Amino acid sequence: MNFIDEHRDRFGGVEPIYHVLTQHGCSIAPSTYYAAKKRPAAPSARSLRDAELKELITDIYDANFRVYGARKIWHELNRRGHQVARCTVERLMRELGIAGAIRGKKVITTVPDASVQRAPDLVNRNFVAPAPNRCWVADFTHVKTWSGVVYVAFVVDTFSRRIVGWSAATSKQTRLVLDALDMALWQRDRDQHPYMRGELIHHSDAGSQGGFN
Q1: Which of 62, 96, 130 is at the close of a domain?
Q2: Which long-range contacts (C-beta less than 8 Å, at least 24 apart) are formed by 172-175?
Q3: Residue 145 above 90 pLDDT?
Q4: Domain identity same for 109 and 212
Q5: Distance CA 153, CA 176 (A)
Q6: pLDDT tens-digit profile of 105-135?
Q7: Same domain, 89 and 121
């Protein structure tokens, strides 16, 4: 069959070649060639292995909320006893049209202001308070949402570990942390536990938005 495939164009098709072969004692009909060409070729060992791995890769990908990349899927396959190269996993994922989740740009919340003198650490890393309203610690972080990044500031009373004030905004400006502090003061007044001037220490990090003690 390979010989016919190689020379059919040169000799004007399949039938002339079979005509010559018949003259030399090979009584083979052209229909035999066409029937053989229509039969599907037996799948190779590699294609069978690829099909098996693709099913496993898809299962692992779906089971992990479609966020796993090639490295994690490769590790999971090996943990399950399937010895496979990482480059093979990468190739099969490309063929499947799937990819892991890509981390977004890191959000930096603490931005020290080098032009301002840093406030002294009045707490000295001792965050145990003997009573309410003696030591508040403040910080803020970020939360990623569908519409973008939201910054959340909070104030914690270290005596009870209670969040006494918080605020949220789409920008990390000074107003964000001041609003959390204002809420803490209002909350304590409402609970009839106002702070006493000279007793309360408000401790935060060195960020330019709220770096004060």
Answers
A1: 96
A2: 172/109, 172/111, 172/140, 172/142, 172/209, 173/209, 174/208, 174/209, 174/210
A3: no
A4: yes
A5: 6
A6: 665 655 555 665 666 667 777 778 888 888 8
A7: no
Looking at the structure of the chain, the number of domains it has is 3
Nearest to 187 by CA among 151, 169, 210, 163: 163
Q: How far apart are CA 27 and CA 91, in angstroms?
A: 47
What pTM does this model have?
0.43
Which tokens belong to 62?
A: 């779906």
135 and 60 in a common domain? no
Could you list the residue range(s) of the whole structural domain that residue 21 is in? 2-38
Q: What pLDDT is stored for residue 212 in this prediction?
A: 44
Q: Is the pLDDT of residue 64 over 60?
A: yes
What is the model's pLDDT at position 213? Answer: 46
Cα gap 160→137, rounded to integer Å: 12
